[in-house]
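Write out this protein's structure.
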Amino acid sequence: MAKKIVKPRREFTRQQLSRWQREKRRQRIIFSIGLFVIIAVLALVASAWFIYQYKPLHETVIRVNDTKFDMNYYIKMLKYFGQGQGYNYISRQADGVVQIIERNEIIRQEAQELGFAVSNREVDKRLKSNSPPLSRDYRDIARAEILTERLKDEYFDEQVPLVAPQRHILAMLLESENQAAEVRARLERGESFTDLASELSLEGYSKLESGDLGWHSKEALAALLGIPLLGDYAFSLEVGVLSEPLHDEEVIKRTGYWLIKVMDRSEEMRSANVEIILLGTEEDAVAIRERLEAGEDFNTLAKGFSLAIGAEEDEGKVGWISPGVVTPTFDEFVFDPELEIDTLSDVIRDEGALTKGGFWLIKVLDKDDNRQIEESDRDILKAKALEEWVTSLLEDPENEIDDSYLTLEKKDWAVYKAAGGWD
C-alpha cells in the first residue's frame, strides 16, 4: 500500500505577514474610496435631478381655493393647447393657459356647489370621442367641456327668456364719416342697402349677411356682434328710418392703410428692417403722408397717430421682420427686390390689417315687442350668461386664486419643456 505524502505547511515570516496585512488594508481603503466616489457621484446626479427636474415639476404653481396644480400639470396643458407647435407659438399661449386652468377649476368647484357633477365614465367617453383619443392627462379639459355644456343647457337656460322685444335690422360699417355720408346719399337715391353692404361693409357679420342682420333682441344683438352701441341705437330708431352716420370708436374692422419705410434689407436672412404707420382711414393716411412729405418726423407722427400695436412705445420702429409676420399686402411692398431703401411708400390699403373705429348706417325694417327668440340667439345669450357668471367668480375676493409663483422665468422654463426641451 502506497504511503500518503503530506506537503509541509507553509509558514509566513513576520515580515511577509506584515506586508500581506498592509496590502489587504490598502485594498480595503481603495475599495472604500471607490465606493464612496460612486455613491457621491450617484448622490450628486440624484440631487441635481431632484433640484432641477423633480422638484420644479412638483412645486405648486397655481392654486384655486384648496385645489393645487403643479408645474408638471401646467406643462401638460401647454403641450395640449400648443398643438404640437414650437417654442414661439407655445410662449404666446402661456398666460392664456394659466387663465384656462383657473377658469376650468372655478367652474368645477362652483358647479359642484350647484349640484352639477360629471362622472369619470362620462369623462372617459369624451376623451375617447376625440380624434385621436386624448390621454387621461387631459381629464380636466374633458370634464370642463361637459360641465360647461350642462350648465348652459340646464342652469342658464332657465335664466334666458323665451320671448323679448326684437327688431329686424339692416346695418353696415364704413371706414369714415365722409364715406358713410356718401353711401347714405346713395341709399336715399334708391340704391339697395344689401348690395352696398355686401360690397362695402367692413364688419365681418354684416358683410357676410349683406347687411341684413335679421331679427334680434337688444341683448342678443350686442352679444352677437360684441357691440352694445349698435343695439342701443337700433332700438331707438323708428321703423323705416335710415340713421345718420353713427360713430363707433371700439369696433374692429378688417381694413387699414400703411405708410412704410424700409430702412435696410438682408437678402441672405430674407428679412427687412422697417418703420411703419398704420391708419384707419384713407383720408387719415393721405393727410399723414402729406405731413411727412412736408418734412415732419416719421417717428413722431407714428407715436401720435399710428394704430399699430406698440406704436406709442416703439414710435413705428418695428425692426427686423421676416415674410409672413404681418400680411401678404405688407410683404408685397416690403420684400419687393426692386424697392429702393429708405423710400416712403404710397398709401397702401390692406384688407388684412385690423384697425379700430368706423361709422355705422342702420335701418330698422320691422319691430315686434313680444317675439319668440330664435334658439341660436338663446344659445348666444346662455353663453353670455355663463361668461358673466365665470367672470364674477374669478373676480370674487372670496375665491382665492394665486398664480404668483409663475414668474416670467418659470413660464419660460415651462414653455421650453412643453416645446420638447430636455426631453
